[in-house]
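QUALITY CONTROL LOG
STEP: pairwise intake check
CHECKER ROLE: data steward
CRITERIA: each record must contain a sequence immediately followed by its structure tokens, with no blank fields

ENTRY 1 OF 2
RESULT FIELD BELOW
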Amino acid sequence: MPRTPRQPIADLTAHLGYWLRYVSNHVSKAFAHKLEAREVTVAEWTLMRKLYDTDCLAPSRLAEQLGLTRGAITKLADRLITKGLATRTPDLRDARAQTLALSARGRNLVPTLAALAEQNEAEFFDHLSIKERATIERVLRDIVRIRGLKSIPVE
């Protein structure tokens, strides 16, 4: 049977998205590995970091701020509570509502995890000049703004 001629198409590596994903996957995997040593996932870290800046927050507000579903926040909160890193308490203003907060153990762990995030950032990007880093960040923020991207990457 004769072979049908193939349309020429660009190589995978000809796409900017390929390189963004390539770097992103490696950065994320390295960070996830660092967090695993502390028995925390990237998604849990994201929630912990958000709670670190507040005394407590309603799960619905967390969902809104992180671009996650309320169900996802509930699952993450349950995992953090089981690990002793967060607490859930009834909202004093509304008996039907609850708030989430970091436990003392969770609050004490966040600076250590933040240092791991900084270490990971340095391992991948310290070779870039300040100007190069600023350009990359500006371009990526422009893409986020123009595309209306809302959800925070957690995995």
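ENTRY 2 OF 2
RESULT FIELD BELOW
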Amino acid sequence: MRQLGCGALFVLLAALPAAAQDPTLAPRSKGSPSAAVTVYEMSDFQCPYCRRHTLETFPTLEREYVATGKVRWVFINFPLASIHPNAVAAAQFAMCSARQGKFWQAHDILYQEQEKWAPLKDPGPYLVSLFDPLRLLRAPMTACLQKSETLAEIRGDAEGAVKAGAQSTPTFYVEGLLVVGAQPIELFRQLLDSLVVAKSARGKKGS
């Protein structure tokens, strides 16, 4: 697979990511399971465009769509290791944190402090330094990281992302469509509003 940087909007029909049926999704999901629309964000913790989306756009999406019950948001690991050598280590840290119910806390701090750990030759010591700020239990975290216990889950995520048509990060799978790149909030609003209306109307007809 050719691994690219963030591009412009690219929308097409795609296969549902294999990870959609993964029971490990719950700790890295936000919003109501019965929401009209589900968004799968296929992202790389070392990707600067993913960081921009997380810090600049997602807070508004969370407030307007996730918290209001309109959208369920699911994070899918898609580390582009060939261009981001620390991405897999960061994904493992986040997934190990998820076992303690701290995925989103780890997610947020990894993006907030990306400029500190991303350029390191060995990000391990820096990631370990995050245990205390996140109030993570040291023994299980250390064992999880040292034994690469979540690596198979991360690989499964990445394989599902590829099957869905993702080639770059961030890519968003939204009800059979792909949105590629750190797009502005206006574009997400237009897409999500139309999908929520359409899915809600369909649900009323079927009731």
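INTAKE CHECK: passed for both entries
DESCRIPTIVE NOTE, ENTRY 2: Confidence is low (pLDDT under 50) at residues 1-14, 16-20.
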